[in-house]
Amino acid sequence: MYDVIIVGAGPAGISASLYTVRRNLKTLIIYKEKSALEKTTKIENYYGFENGINGEDLYKIGIRQAQNVGAEVIKDEVTKIKIEYQNKAVANEFKEEQNATKVEKQKIFRVQTLNDEFESKAVIVATGNKKGKPNIKNIDKYEGKGISYCAICDGFFYKNKDVAVIGNGDYAISEAMDLQNIVKSITILTNGGQAPEYRAENININTKEIQEINGENKVEEIKFKDNTKMKIDGIFIAQGVAGSTDFAKKLGAKIYNDKIVVDENMETSIKGLFACGDCTGGLYQVSKAVYEGTKAGLAVLK
Description:
By secondary structure, this protein is α/β, with parallel strands linked by helices. It has helices spanning 11-22, 55-69, 88-91, 100-105, 151-154, 170-179, 244-251, 286-301, and strands spanning 2-7, 27-31, 72-75, 78-85, 107-113, 117-125, 147-148, 162-166, 185-189, 203-206, 210-214, 221-224, 229-231, 234-237, 255-256, 259-260, 273-275. The chain contains eight helices and 17 strands. The protein starts with a strand and ends with a helix.
């Protein structure tokens, strides 16, 4: 059991860890996808580097710094975060206001990756601002009208219906697995990408490139670039890897304008779940990410 698990190893996540570790909290950092910082050629507007610094160098220095102070760092893909209760009898009384504090103290976060599973008392999501929406005609038109970004949130609305998941990574597989016991059929659409290695029973794979999504008032059909068509009731977007906002949505945390809503302590509407960095909106700057990571780390200590 960890005191805190930090998802993401950019400036926000690493900064949080520097405070939690130095106060003897057992801290795990999990990261997978390249940070936006790592893709930056040169940074000249961050304090302490008179000649600027390469983004990738700063990113790697940060990870080593966290390791040097005692944080455990692993490279793996987080596919799901769940909340569980150590005492189910207490959890059933959650609706009674007088038991709320008791329940929160017994709440744990279960963080699932491709290769393992970890438990923690608190979680900080700091995986940046995911930009994983595919460039497909009419995708914006049907958001909320058959296009969803959360299988756990919206899967119920497609009970016994035919749905598709757009994506070709492990995140797409995870979303499809969440839908398996609800929908009639599932097809993973790679949109021209390579088919995932994993094969699950009752999940179809289609590697054709998508041209457009059509329907009268809601999603009804997918047209491919070879002019073939597929009748469909719903589409779930799961391109790339899961981002901070994806995790927050699935746990029921408040989202506004596709950004995670946090209080002055970087805590979301879910007790024990914190968010910092690009996923909270505002300036997309290293200095802002470091500041919010610091606040999140200090809040976890409290």
